[in-house]
Write a structure and sequence with these properties.
CATH class: Alpha Beta
Shape: globular
Number of helices: 8
Number of domains: 1
Distance between the termini: 41 Å
Structural class: alpha/beta
Largest sheet: 7 strands, parallel
CATH architecture: 3-Layer(aba) Sandwich
């Protein structure tokens, strides 16, 4: 009988993080649940023993918190199978009206925090786990990682950055390390984490009700998204258990639809613009793009 997997989950206080924590525990997995306010998980801590659930205070914008959490995971369990890199939040505001400090704060969590967790995860998988055992790094991105709604430009930028970083990191890892990276791209799912989203007042220049950000604001006001967060976490958990880890995992038919539209748009762009690239090589030759 195989040993239960050890999961390391960031942003476990709410949303997908809380749902994944609960589901993994219910399936017999061991969970290291990290969040800024550990008391939020007091109900789970009371139900599960320390050999099943380790709750740690982690602010992903602080490198020392991340390092300490992985060190305590090593000390407690000696191994790690899955990192659910989930901590993050959204910010809705027109680009012109978004205070730069607010945008930077979101990047610190959504991108730099996720990036630093990723680096620590790869190091753990390589140096602490048995040689070749590797591990799975699940990067929670968004449909906004490949298509952007008006008003979510900065949020989408954090997810575009996370996807670009994850693509590059995956290409750097030798197959012998057996480290798998999967970028998860959820569509519209309703979670209690929505309460943590930041909705800033509208920029007065965009107040016209026909403008795109006005339309999206009305759509988001009190929206109950149709995606079921519990079904999401069950599905992601099943993907991990089956062991065939895709490089990308769009989640929800809305995400599939938007990704298909993006593919069609890019295909059309190639057909429309390829002729402009036909004669752009140096006369003396050289080396092309190497990937």
């Amino acid at each position: 009988m195989s040993s239960p997997k050890v999961w390391f989950i960031t942003g476990a206080s709410s949303g997908f993080g809380r749902c994944m924590t609960e589901h993994a525990l219910s399936q017999g997995a061991i969970v290291v649940a990290t969040l800024r306010k550990p008391e939020v998980l007091s109900d789970l801590a009371a139900r599960y023993s320390a050999d099943k659930l380790l709750v740690l205070k982690v602010d992903v914008t602080k490198q020392e918190d991340i390092d300490e959490a992985f060190a305590r995971t090593r000390d407690a369990f000696g191994r790690l199978d899955v990192v659910f890199n989930n901590a993050g939040y959204g910010l809705f505001k027109e680009v012109e009206g978004t205070p730069v400090e607010k945008a930077r704060e979101m990047f610190e969590t959504n991108f730099w925090g996720s990036m630093n967790v990723s680096r620590a995860a790869v190091k753990f998988f390589r140096e602490v786990n048995e040689p070749g055992k590797g591990g799975i790094l699940l990067q929670v991105s968004s449909v906004a990682g490949f298509i952007t709604l008006p008003g979510l430009s900065y949020y989408a930028a954090t997810k575009h950055a996370l996807e670009g970083f994850s693509d590059g990191l995956a290409k750097e890892l030798p197959p012998s390390w057996n480290i798998k990276i999967c970028v998860i791209e959820p569509g519209a799912f309703y979670t209690n984490g929505i309460n943590g989203e930041v909705l800033l007042p509208q920029h007065p220049a965009y107040a016209d009700e026909s403008f795109a950000t006005s339309v999206v604001r009305r759509m988001l006001d009190g929206a109950m998204f149709e995606g079921d967060a519990e079904k999401f976490t069950r599905t992601v958990y099943q993907v991990v258990e089956e062991g065939k880890i895709p490089q990308r995992l769009p989640m929800g038919l809305d995400a599939i639809e938007k990704l298909s539209a993006k593919i069609e748009s890019l295909t059309a762009t190639v057909a429309e613009t390829a002729r402009w690239s036909e004669d752009l090589k140096r006369a003396g030759g050289g080396v092309g793009l190497i990937i």
